[in-house]
Amino acid sequence: MSTHHNSALLSVQHLHKAFGGNQAVNDVSFSLQAGELLALIGPNGAGKSTMFNLVNGQLVPDSGSITLEGVSLVGRKPHALWHMGVSRTFQTAQTFGSLTVVENVQMALLSADGQSLSPWRRATHYRHADALQLLAQVQLDTQAHRAGNALAYGDVKRLELAMALANEPRLLLMDEPTAGMAPDERHALMQLTRDLVTQRGVAVLFTEHSMDVVFEHADRVLVMARGALIAQGTPAQMQADPHVQAVYFGGGKTFGAPASGTP
Ligand code: ADP
Ligand code: MG
After folding, report:
1. Whose CA is nearest to atom 15 of ligand 1?
2. Which end of the chain offers a freer environment for a tag, N or C, measured as fewer CB atoms within 10 Å?
């Protein structure tokens, strides 16, 4: 873990991204420390995915800066970011179903090591022990030799997490990591993520629809609405913020008890 507690791992300053005349991300600034789990929430159309894709290199900002330990990430493609220690998981799990579980992780290790990937060349012998160790960290080692497409959905998400760890990330970006999961599975995945964050000092930025996940597991929350960052703070602070409640839920509803989350 960093000894420079004052310097952020990730720093986003005055970020702008418009589609036509639509300011999808409008002057957003925030920072993220090593070992921190930061949630990005907001109603549909708030700009979460745009913000997320600016950080992961899929989109290029119109203006503003994104730096990782002082190094600009702007204009770098996702694969270049991966080699800088920026990893991501996807809303819809992305694995190679035809390979075994351990081979999936071996493919990620090959990529992390800058080896060229030939889809027809199986990675059976490549860093097998390291791959098993990564699987053990997500409690999938007992399923290492099953086909990827034979896993239950929650296990695919854990496999994806093991693959995201193959490059020893400093920053892990997760796009709705618990989408499509049952409540107990969601909490298990986020608890696992928390343990990895603690053990490895990784910083995590994740978008999330489920309020119970955000309030139970995030260290800090960013709230976006109509492209702007309208509030940030601890889950408790956000839960108590009338501005957040009004904008995020359009009046009426307030944040409920943890168990009441959104679909
Ligand atoms: P969220 O993820 O919070 O639902 P998005 O970032 O997907 O929000 O979208 C923010 C705004 O930007 C919306 O008005 C959306 O219609 C618009 N937008 C997002 N992506 C594109 C795109 N590729 N082209 C045009 N408009 C887009
Ligand atoms: Mg989105």
Report:
1. 45
2. C
